[in-house]
Structures are given as structure tokens and as C-alpha cells.
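Dear colleagues,

I hope this message finds you well. In preparation for our joint manuscript, I am sending the Maleate isomerase (Paraburkholderia phenazinium) sequence together with its predicted structure, so that both groups work from identical material. I would be grateful if you could confirm receipt.
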Amino acid sequence: MSELQSSPIDSPPGAYARFGFSLDDGIAGRAAIGLVVLATDHTIEFEWRRMLSLDGVAFYESRVANSAEITAETLAEMDGRIAAAVELIRPGEHLDVVAFGCTSASMVLGEERVFERIREARPGVACTTPITAARIALDALGAQRVALLTPYERPINDAMSHYLKARGVDVVSVGSFEHRDDNEVARIDRASLEYAVLELGRDPDVDAVFVSCTSLRLVDAIAEIEAKLGKPVLSSNHALAWHALRLGGVEDRLPQFGRLFTI
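The corresponding C-alpha cells are as follows:
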């Protein structure tokens, strides 16, 4: 067995200089936002980069293990994993807000439970979830009667409708793609989403359409769909980003992302 032999290291030729420096606020001088992303999610980070591309605003993400199969049972399994995921986001450094990126799990576990888990790792931090953000956004938009569009199967849709109604959101209709594979939900195309939103939204009893699920890609289409529909449209990622910014004290108006981002 050979031994490592030490040998002198020659200094590189030329002069060496040590420089002083000063510090600024870094990339998150206005707001530092933590985001917990599902392991299977393809979409939320992509859409958040579009909406949070603001000077002085930064988001930092961590992933939480989950099943690609969307059922109440698999969603509930995330309960004990949330705090550990939050602990990985900028340990020891300040965060203004922590957002949990799953609409259906927030409903299954309950928003309050999700906040408890986040605050196990970040005591006192401002928190939001997609369903929290959607409720607050709908109220800010003055929308009282809502159509709900999801990719979930009927039991989750029924539970979400009841959950929202119990918290003051009048869900007057529900539409769904009824597909439980989260990896494929992320590939539902714009034409399919737009058609479903317009079909649900044209009901005169509907004030706004909420598209639930962070895997669905809608942010780039929202302003155009709203123009066709004449009513507000919001999605999980869209509402979550808006609420995280507002919780972080960022009030920038971004009309390219639809009506919500003008308030």
C-alpha cells in the first residue's frame, strides 16, 4: 500500500494581490421568496421565472418528494416532507415569503397544516399556497361566482369545490381533464386549456375562471384568453406568484399577465 508523499508547491509566477470589497443587497434586495416545488412538477419554475423577472426580486426553490399519481392518498403523503424541503432553501439566510407549490395537496392537507409545516423550518415567515392565493386573488378581483377547471379526477374535484365553498368561494361549475398522471398533465396544450376555459367562462353566472394545478401551463395565455372571454382568468402558478410578490411587499403592476397583476 503506497503512502501519499507531500511535496512543496511552487507559487505561480508574477505578483499576488488581495483586494478589499464592499457588499450590496444581492439579487434579492426587494424580496427573497422561497418556493417548494413538487418533485414531479415540470411547469411552476418556468412560469415563475417569467412573472418574477423583476430587479431586486429572487425566488429560491426546493423540491419535495411526491407521487406522479394524483390521488388524495398520495397527496396526503407529503405532509411530513414539507418542513425538510423548506429547510433546504437558503439555510440561515432571510426569506420574506415561503410558497408551497401544490394546489390539491394544500386542499387535502389544509392550508393551515401546510403553514404549520413551513413554519417548523421558518418560524413566523409569511406563507402562501396556490389555493390560498386563489381565494385572495378572487376576492381582490371582486369575483364571487367562479368556474373551476382542473386536471383531477372527480373525487378531488368534488373535495376542492366543497373546500372552496366552505371558505367563501361560490363554485358554480366545475370542468376537468380527469387525468391523474402529473407528468402528462404538464403537457396538456394551450388549445385544450383555452377551449375549456372559454367554455366554462361563457356561462353568464360565472364571474371568473380559476384553473387549478401547478403543472398546467397557462401564464403566457391568460391576458389573451381574458380579452376573448371578457372576464378574469387565473391559474395556480399565476395566483401564487402574485400573492407571494404582494406578501413580499412588491407591488409592481404587470398587465401582460392579465387583470390580477394590475391590482
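For the figure legend, we might mention the following. The chain is about 35% helix and 15% strand. Residues 8 and 14 are 18 Å apart (CA to CA).

With kind regards,
E.M.
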